[in-house]
Design brief:
Distance between the termini: 57 Å
Strand order of the largest sheet: 2-1-3-4-5-6
Radius of gyration: 23 Å
Number of helices: 13
CATH superfamily of the largest domain: Response regulator
Oligomer: single chain
Number of strands: 19
Low-confidence stretches: none
Shape: globular
Number of domains: 4
Amino acid sequence: MSKLVSPEELLRQTEYMKKCEDILKKTFVNRQPICYVHSYGCQGNVADGEKIKGMLAEMGYGLSNSAEGADVVIFNTCAIRENAQDRVYGNLGMLIHYKKKNPAMIIGLCGCMVQQDHVARRLKEVFPGVNLVFGTHVIHQLPEFMYNILSNSSKIYNITESNGVIAEGLPIVRESNFKASVPISYGCNNFCTYCIVPYVKGRERSRSFDSIYSEVKELVSNGYKEIMLLGQNVNSYGSDLDSGVNFSYLLSKINEIDADFRIRFMTSHPKDATKELIDTIARCDKVCKHLHLPVQCGSNKILKAMNRKYTVSQYLKIIDYAKNKIPNISFTSDIIVGFPGETYSDFKETLKLVEQVKYSSLFMFIFSPRRGTKAELMSDSIPKEEKSRWLSELINCQNEISAKVHESYVGRTERVLFDGVGRTNDNMLTGRTDTNLVVDCEKFNLKIGEFADIKITKAHRMALVGELV
């Protein structure tokens, strides 16, 4: 079976959008129906959420920033960590309360969490007020699901198992008018022992070069200033295609588009991070000089137990090569603390690696066993309190490093894309440097969605402060 959803199937779903629109016009005579879509987890989920919004908008729904008062609420869920799932269950209770006030309210859940059989069963048994549950492989069928609910009050539970599909050309309502996420691949083939992604997202499948290039070109022609290329492992992009196109080639060609914008990407798997990739980042002026390269742990023993397929030495070689080729490059990473079998000695190896690389920032987590993964069955004798102490030690270590990295920017002039109001002061705007560091600046003569040259005047642990040049 082809991984591409056929044009005929996409046309069928377009027809369902029109049917839904006709029903809604008859049902909501005096007002526009409202929907609320919330995506948990990664930026790939957010990109899926933009397509869900796009399809609902085509059906005639207006978009709301709140679940309260909405006629349709869809939670696009995440399964990476337990607390993400717990938040969904907690927020479902709130939705059931809203539904008592509005019995016609449609509640839907989709995404990675519900792709798991045990979650779908629990939703059916414990939350009868949920109308719609659909998995990661059938997002493009949302119009059909909505039509069945609107026309005959059906309840839909569809978590079809699949190696994964690609649905091109779905309508999109983007969350920003100057920053856009563009998926280049879906799914994963790596099967890290702690990770549920290959089981819920399917096998790795790359979009065609032409589809990606056309989407990016249209975005930048419409004034988008930052393009984020997304994939569970962008470095292996194209390995399933017969075109001979790889990720470095894709970066190079997008870099050639004649417009003022910059290119980011995530996530890079270390086992597929090559010298060719680093050379491409160094050569391409629009590609940001920042590399998010998740190491997860600094112990070879634990890396092997995680099935990461690289050693600490191999990881550091690509880091050192990047530092030599791109002197100002910044690094960020993910680290799991307290993996089954990890000792304090193993953890000290992680601290050693962190001190050697000098990441600008880290995403740090205590190991959370996911049902259905190999790590769930591994013996784990370290108490949670001990793991929490390790995490605190890692956080303190990284805080010192982040402070020094930030201090090194004082006096430099950086090009910043401003993307929001200051976190603690409404008179400030906040943005990011090419190297992905946060910069706060007085908003006088600055605009959200535009670049500006900023002289860095102060450094805090979490952000830089600057002034317009």
